[in-house]
């Protein structure tokens, strides 16, 4: 197993730790942020999420730079991304920080695109992620991190940055999903 795939596996192994941090009632205290408070456990979970999300860039960069792209990596990397993002969004619902309807749309889009990629793979076609999909992922990651941080440091300014990022991520999720299906509709038409 090459280094990029090991980095991807480390992201997968961080997901249960991230989930446990936010699922178990841990009272590590809290910090006051203006009129808001930030539980230390949420801060630690946000840092862990940011580190896990950052490994996606590292493994991709390393794989491309040293020509270490493998079929295992092509399978593990998007799976790790989807597991991390879906886990975080579902936990944010439980914490009362993200509306369920937004998370349902985001996760449904991921299932739909994954389904299209599976159909394409069955036909021997590889469907790469487009630029809009990469923007969607970036805004999703920023939204999750800032929601976990209770909108810090923007809460000092009274600016709802985390919510804004979440709604932009939602719009990009829908638009990029529609764009992906329109551009790759030939796969659906040509499938047996």
Automatic annotation (TrEMBL):
Its main location: membrane. Keywords: Cell membrane, Lipid biosynthesis, Lipid metabolism, Membrane, Phospholipid biosynthesis, Phospholipid metabolism, Transferase, Transmembrane, Transmembrane helix. It is found in: Cell membrane. It comes from the Bacteria. Belongs to the CDP-alcohol phosphatidyltransferase class-I family. NCBIfam families: pgsA. This is CDP-diacylglycerol--glycerol-3-phosphate 3-phosphatidyltransferase. It comes from Paraliobacillus quinghaiensis. The lineage of its organism: Bacteria, Bacillati, Bacillota, Bacilli, Bacillales.
